[in-house]
Amino acid sequence: MILQRSSVKPLPARPALRSAPRSTAAALVYDRLRSQILSLAIPPGAALSENELAKSFGVSRTPVREALLRLADEMLVEIVPKSGTTVSRIPYSQLPEAIAIRKVLEELAVRTACERASKSQLTNIWMQVERQREADHAGDIDAFHEADEAFHAAIADAAGYPSIWQLVKQVKLQVDRYRRLTLPETGRMARVIEEHAAVIAAIEKGDAARAMTAMRGHLEGLEHSLPNIRNLNPDYFVEDVGEFARPTTMNGK
Amino acid sequence: MILQRSSVKPLPARPALRSAPRSTAAALVYDRLRSQILSLAIPPGAALSENELAKSFGVSRTPVREALLRLADEMLVEIVPKSGTTVSRIPYSQLPEAIAIRKVLEELAVRTACERASKSQLTNIWMQVERQREADHAGDIDAFHEADEAFHAAIADAAGYPSIWQLVKQVKLQVDRYRRLTLPETGRMARVIEEHAAVIAAIEKGDAARAMTAMRGHLEGLEHSLPNIRNLNPDYFVEDVGEFARPTTMNGK
DNA sequence: CTGGCATATCTTGTATACAAGATATCTGTG
DNA sequence: CACAGATATCTTGTATACAAGATATGCCAG
To answer: Closest by alpha carbon to A199, among A179, A178, A213?
Structure first.
């Protein structure tokens, strides 16, 4: 039982063991599948067979099934009881909702961080912006993305509301998959860095209104990128997703 | 693993499939366990054994394990790899965070509902208030609670953001367990009904500011009830929960 | 060639056996 | 009696076999 007070994460400069073996087989299968789904390496609508996955991972169906059940809870796969399992299609109509939710959550984070952030926490946030600058210079998209997420997580930490970032991660999943379909926009990294810097600068001054506006504007950049493509791969999307709330596994309660 | 070996509810030999004819055994076990955990019938800190649960439910370990894994994702149980599984203690220090998050989510819901609610949706919301009035008169606490939740869900529906309620349900779990420990406050139902009526009235008028204020005030009632007891059963709580985000199952990521 | 029914073969759900770490107990030794 | 070590017995993690529904296939009648 480890009980550890966490104010600031060490955050290794290096992704460390990215493809390292996780503790359990189920965790490994979960990580790999989730990563491939989010990167669209496995496209929306693709069929997944527990037997095939078990063979390809060299494990039995048990850990594969465990991973799939968890992915179903995250709405990343859909399990039809005695029929089959597929990678969820992207619910296009729900993306604005996800962004709206993310906005209020992150506004709460910056607002509260304005009141409660310690100096070391502010430093940590700035550090993530610096990491992004370096990644931009190096042209390392993956490192940029990682530092981007660390930035938002650090703000939630500074607010003393770390679970805000847990919720945001959960909510942004489908949006992330959508954005993978759009072409990388040139100069985006530099713009994001500017916006991030504006947010943390306002937090540092304790200017809640300004910080919230900056964060809102930053996230509205996501909204503007929505009505972009989607006609390229219409079968990657589902127009109207029925009674949401994991209609596939168990009962939604 | 110290902790009481407290037996899991006897659960009649005849599982009363009539009242809970869930499709799969795993779903049934999940529902029953979850209900008993939230009602504190199984107290925080109680040990859970997959074998014992399997015997008491008359099924094998497989569906029991599936249910426990899902409950672990919801932070309702904690699984220590080769050691044991316990009902999660209530993270007292995280309750204000949960309430703060819920506030901004529901403020988003009422604000958006002011713009988008249809007449039938408004009627639906009023209907839930009416159900609460009836439950109050009948003194039916369970029915009141159910209508209470339906009220908040209906607002999210009216906003066109139904997943807001899904998130709120997820966030309020630990607060709900906490409130089960406090004595039922006389006159609370009537007060809640008043507050609900004020919210829907403001939504109906399209007065977003007023609706948000009403909802905020309503939810602040939760906050005021926090520093109540907690000394009665100090072993039901955990002061500082380390690296949040399901530290028990798999890796957070 | 077309339609319909039986069947073969998929799928997921469940039960059971085994593996291996963690913990408690008991035993032997000083 | 105190303490250390072996061991018995817990725990969860995984593999495998079987059950049963869903789907595809193919065969046969018209």
So the answer is: A213
